[in-house]
Amino acid sequence: MDGYLHRGRPLRVRFAAHGAALRVKYLSPHISNEMLAEAFSIFGEIERAVVAVDDRGKPTGEGIVEFTRKAHAMTALKRISEGVFLMTS
Questions:
Q1: Cβ neighbourhood burial of 9 (10 Å; 0-12, 13-18, 19+)
Q2: Can you give the pLDDT at residue 19?
Q3: Which ranges of 1-89 does DSSP label H, i.e. alpha helix?
Q4: For residue 86, what pLDDT is reported?
Q5: Whole-angstrom Cα distance, residue 28 to residue 59?
Q6: 59 and 13 in contact (C-beta within 8 Å)?
Q7: Could you list the pLDDT tens digit for every one of the 89 residues in the chain?
Q8: Do 70 and 20 contact (CB within 8 A), yes or no?
């Protein structure tokens, strides 16, 4: 539908920001998608967790955790902001 004319004006279609997602930084290079999801699942149901990688497949130290509900993301953000959250094996 991007570019489609509606009432004489072109529509612009873009990806929306996920309202229940958190950006995570300073991840160990040994953290996998599964480990990230498991660690954050204590705050609520996870829709998806992805560790970012560069063009060579090397972890960048950042990731995205998408919760099924915004309330879960807010709980995680609040609890992590109040203290330290460590992910260890």
A1: exposed
A2: 86
A3: 33-40, 70-81
A4: 78
A5: 8
A6: no
A7: 778 888 888 887 766 678 899 999 999 999 999 999 999 999 999 999 999 999 999 999 999 999 999 999 999 999 988 887 877 66
A8: yes
Between CA 48 and CA 24 the distance in angstroms is: 13
pLDDT of residue 89: 61
Determine the Cα angle at 71 with ends 67 and 77, to 5°: 75
Token pair for residue 73? 């993301």
Instruction: List residues bridging with 6 in a β-sheet.
Output: 9
- 37 three-state secondary structure: helix
Q: CA angle 84-48-58, nearest 5°?
A: 75
